[in-house]
Amino acid sequence: MPELPEVEVVRRGLTTHLVDRRIAEVEVYHDRAVRRHAGGAADFRAVLPGHSITAVRRRGKYLWWALDDGDAVIAHLGMSGQFRVNGSPTPPLPPGEATSVTEAIRHPHLRIRFTFDDGGPDVDFLDQRTFGGMSFAPGGADLPQEIAHIARDPLDPDFSLVAAVAAIRHKHTEIKRALLDQTVVSGIGNIYADEALWRAKVHYARPTASMTRPVATAVLTAATEVMTQALAVGGTSFDALYVNVNGESGYFDRSLNAYGQQDRPCPRCGTPIRRDAFMNRSSFFCPHCQRPPRTHASRPARAGRT
DNA sequence: CCTGCCGCCTGCGCGC
DNA sequence: TGCGCGCAGGCGGCAG
Question: Is the pTM of this model over 0.70?
Answer without folding.
Answer: yes
